Amino acid sequence: MTGGLEPVICLARVTEVIFSQAWEGTMKERRGEHPYGDAAQIILLVVFLVVWVADSFFLRRTTFLAAGFPLTIRLVICGLLAVIGVLLAGSGHRVIEHEERPDHVVGAGGFRYVRHPLYLASILFYFTLFVSTVSIACALLFIVIVFFYNYIATYEEMLLVRRFGEEYERYKVLTGKWLPRPGRRTGSQG
User: Fold this and answer.
1) Is 189 within the bounds of a domain?
2) How far apart are CA 186 and CA 113, in angstroms?
3) N or C: which end of the chain has fewer CB within 10 A?
């Protein structure tokens, strides 16, 4: 027993958590990330997977469209999307896996083709799961997820423009946000 100090200790721990989360959010923003981007991504992933599994394999309320698309075609599409997503994610992670962020705009790996290869890889993952079972419930969630990723990407681009100025503006002209711009590639900066 701590002699009636439990409420004080509890309040101190809650305050510590709040300040550490605020500090972490500030640090993420300094690194060019949305302060709540990671938490929201995890929440959306869990919600999507729960809905996908429940609707696709148990309830089957909104998967009736799957009958109109042969499984073989869906699996080929899923395979192609998965390969593209893995390549994007892998090349994006190799470029930014270091603890310290580069002091210049990154134009190598997946960043050579699109400005947000890691987010695009995540979007392709969700789309792959949707295509596999053609769940309308997942399609609706997918739309929400695409809007979310576009929101955090736009927010983070604002931070990158503040940090890198004209260099990032040039990169934006040369590189598509979500789709590659044919014939307009950035250099292979590290």
Assistant:
1) no
2) 8
3) N
